[in-house]
Amino acid sequence: MRNRIIAGIAAGAIVGFGLVTPAYAATPGNASLSVLHGIPDTPVDVWVNGALTLDDFQPGDLAGPLDLAPGDYEVALTATDATDASSPVLGPVTVSLAADTNYTAVAHLGETGTPTVTPFVNDTSTIAAGQGRLTVRHVAAAPAVDVLAGGAPVVEVLANPDEATLTLPASTVSAAVAAAGTTEPVIGPADVNVQEGVHTIVYAWGSLEDENLALAVQTIEGLHSTPEGVNSGTGGQLAERDMMLQGMLLLGGLVIAAGAATAVAARRARVGS
Question: What whole-number distance in Å separates Cα of residue 249 and Cα of residue 215?
Answer without folding.
Answer: 9
